[in-house]
Design a protein that fits this description.
The complex is a heterodimer. Chain A is of the alpha/beta class. Chain A has a single domain (about 15-135), classed as Response regulator (Rossmann fold, 3-Layer(aba) Sandwich). Chain A is built from 6 helices and 5 strands, in the order βαβαβαβαβαα. Chain A has helices at about 25-35, 50-60, 75-85, 100-105, 120-135, 140-145; strands at about 15-20, 40-45, 60-65, 90-95, 110-115. Chain A has a 5-stranded parallel sheet with strand order 2-1-3-4-5, with helices on both faces. In chain A, α1 links the parallel β1 (about 15-20) and β2 (about 40-45). In chain A, α2 (about 50-60) packs parallel to α3 (about 75-85). The longest helix of chain A is centred in the C-terminal third of the chain and has 14 residues, at about 120-135. Chain B is globular, with a radius of gyration of 16 Å. In chain B, a hairpin with a 2-residue loop joins β8 and β9. Chain B starts with a helix and ends in a 6-residue tail after the last helix. Chain B has helices spanning about 5-20, 60-75, 85-105, 155-160, and strands at about 25-30, 35-40, 40-50, 50-60, 110, 115, 120-125, 130-140, 140-150. In chain B, strands 1, 3, 4, 5, 6, 8 and 9 form a 7-stranded antiparallel sheet that branches. A two-stranded antiparallel sheet of chain B has the order 2-7. Classes of the chains: A alpha/beta, B alpha+beta. At the A-B interface, α1 and α4 of A face α1, α2 and α3 of B.
């Protein structure tokens, strides 16, 4: 897998991710991608209920959340997480990408949407955009400038 | 079965396999299911309900499933590893999710349920009022089958259609 310019927090620590998907395969695949972005896997969950407790436990910088899951779907989990943690950054990652679904997720507090199969370049750009927007990361390319 | 309902699934399988395997999938056969469907390899089933109801089975020859799992995990995979059926489930999820997205954007409304591994050799026959179509795709890793059984609820669609005033 292509290695990307690392996305790091302003304190130079790796960005911490919570990956939520009922498919072990999808979680592994996303974990590999975020590692190639210089990130760290802070936690994993296979359904919306576990995602809520894991979020409170690991306090990640960003959540990658599937929509169609057993027990509690991703859109409801986003709503609950954002209610409890208003600054939570959640990016939806789902194969079902129709307008109603995207709109519902954004209305509940998701920051962005990526459709499966996930292209690493697209996910990298979206994560970079969401983190830069909140001032969590140093924009890529600026690290060298700061150190000069 | 209406071909315009099947077409999104064909396009979606082609696109997902091209992205995930970096290889084309060529449609080779199309047949109607007569008796219950007997799976050829590792299969996953996805159900959906709404204006269109039914189920889709994605069935991969074992060699193809192992090769895809190995390609996607970046390491050699043993056929007995749980990641192999997981891969088939996730591919089914992507193929069906992408097709459903296209159908939804054309006005069909329905809900998709999480995929499950089809453990029995034979899956339930499509209902009396459903037709099942079996598509065989050839890929460089082996054959992939898509069994599509669905029915279109015209009444539900009419109930949801907007009423034009005047």
């Amino acid at each position: 897998m292509r290695q990307f310019e690392p996305l790091t927090r302003k304190d130079h620590q790796p960005v911490r991710y919570l990956i939520v998907d009922d498919s072990v395969f999808a979680r592994k695949s996303l974990a590999k991608m975020v590692e190639s972005f210089g990130g760290e896997l802070a936690g994993e969950a296979g359904d919306g209920c576990t995602a809520i407790t894991e979020y409170a436990r690991v306090k990640p910088d960003i959540v990658l959340m599937d929509i169609t899951m057993p027990q509690m779907e991703g859109i409801e989990a986003v709503e609950r997480i954002v209610q409890e943690h208003p600054t939570a950054r959640v990016v939806m990652v789902s194969s079902v990408g129709y307008q109603d679904n995207i709109l519902a997720a954004l209305q509940k507090g998701a920051r962005h949407f990526v459709q499966k199969p996930v292209k690493p370049d697209a996910l990298y750009e979206i994560i970079r955009y969401v983190l830069n927007d909140d001032g969590v990361t140093t924009p890529v390319g600026a690290q060298g400038e700061n150190s000069r | 079965m209406k071909m315009d309902l099947i077409q999104p699934f064909i396009g979606s399988l082609d696109a997902v396999l091209a992205e995930m395997m970096q290889a084309p999938a060529t449609i080779m056969d199309l047949s109607m299911e007569e008796d219950g469907y007997r799976k050829r390899g590792l299969a996953a089933e996805v159900m959906f309900k709404g204006q269109i109801e039914g189920r889709i089975v994605l069935d991969m020859e074992p060699g193809a499933a192992v090769k895809v799992a190995g390609f996607l995990t970046g390491s050699e995979v043993d056929p007995a590893e749980p990641i192999v059926p997981e891969t088939v489930c996730e591919l089914a999820n992507m193929v069906i999710g992408n097709a459903v997205t296209q159908l939804n954007d054309r006005g069909f409304q329905f809900k998709v349920f999480p995929p499950s591994v089809l453990s029995s050799e034979q899956c339930a026959k499509a209902g009396q009022d459903s037709e099942a179509t079996i598509l065989r795709f050839e890929t460089p890793c082996g054959n992939v089958y898509l069994n599509i059984a669905m029915k279109y609820h015209a009444r539900r669609a009419r109930e949801r259609a907007p009423v034009v005033a005047g």
